[in-house]
Amino acid sequence: MGVACNVLLFLTLPVSAQVQFRHTWDESTQSWSPNLQSYPTNWATALIVNDNDTGSVTNHVRGNWVEKWGTGTLELRGQNSFTGFYANQGDVRIDGTGNSLAVNGNLAVSGTDGANVSVTNGGQLLYCTQLSIGSSYGETGTLTVDGIGSRLEFMSAPVWNGTFNLTDGATAYGTGYLQLMAERSLGHIAQANISGAGTILEMRNGLQIGTFAGGGVDDTGGLNISGGAKVAVGNYSNVRVGQNGQIVVNGKNSSLESAASIVVGNAYAKFLPGEFGELRLEDGAFASAANGIQILDNGTMYASGATVLGNLTVDGLLTLAYSSITESFGLFVDGGVSITGGMITCDFSAFDGWNTWDTSVRGDTEYLTLDMVSYTVNEMSFSLCEFNLIGIEAGMDAGWEYRVTEQRPSFMGHPGTWSLVFTRPYVEQPPVTGTPEPATLLTLGLGAIGAGFVVRRRK
Fold first, then answer.
1. Dihedral angle, C-alpha 296, 302, 306, 308, nearest 10 °
2. Structural domain for 289, as ranges
3. Percent helix, strand and coil across the chain, each rounded to 5?
4. Structural domain total, the chain
5. What's this model's pTM, rounded to 2 decimal places?
6. Which of 15, 44, 191, 457 has a beta carbon 3.0–4.6 Å from 65's, enabling a disulfide?
């Protein structure tokens, strides 16, 4: 799939031989040679900035297609408009409020030696029909949108070999889809990092990561959401994490939201045995899906102190771990839970509260009940599921033994829970006694004398 789409994309891009005019930045005169106004409107042109030079364009609206050449930096100031833009070398910067670039066509960030486009401090990159980062031919690219007020708008965005960063309060909106699908066999990467409070990525028509049906291509991709950022997919479109794909949502207030389903694994073609898609909800992260989260038999889910809004169905691997940030295990599901196969692993590697956690005593047995999954509706369903516990050595050394799993169904608005119960023989500890130190004895003696004196005075 990745190869076919890349070939189609490549055919839509003008190649360098089609550039009719070339303009080189002269650092000594701080101007272009020849002047940018010296060619007919709407003719394709190349802007060349060499070495460590920094060239600039202000309010430039001429040119059907513009290419950035050279290893130097191009700054776009004021309000610029191109029909298409190809950043294939060096850096392109849109920095500061009031500075923008509107691309009324395709935008490619891709170069043999790497290409970088940054939109910062209130800058804006708008109206991109298709935004592509890198290519299947080995070219790489990085697009960074950073800071409050910084904005990216596009229709569709395939990331073939490169990185997309949206950080520190910046926002991005796509009317189409975001694809993170790089050919792993060629050593390519497709990565998106969405981080920071107030940072929001909205996709109207879907998010696809990793390997799906078609062509036998071994695609890979990753999405990281952290620091309170949000990724939302609307228009009743799915989030799909195929084989070799991964989504990590980390930290409180970080969220992944879908107006349809979040599907982890490859339901269409399982041509990569032993390869999995993965969804990780770490340290208080949040995920919601109107039609539920599905972990297929070649999908995995990891949760530590996480929350899910919607039904959760697991046919693959589910790992429930302890979060030292939220001081809780596993996940809370505001919906129903169905475990239809696969394996549940309870990971206690980060849990050090065996001797300090709240316990109860019944008769001669001490109980430690750890709620691994809480849910609000329906009884939790288990079938064809295996259990695996790791990292409990510290608890076993303290005398604990796990015996059974315990399920309490939801009732009259109270969440149900699926818990692990640990037990050990209860031995009542005798009160701590010992021989007081000489200084303590002296203090006690003086206190007794004083008490006796008070009694006598009262008489």
1. 0
2. 176-452
3. 10, 50, 40
4. 1
5. 0.88
6. 44
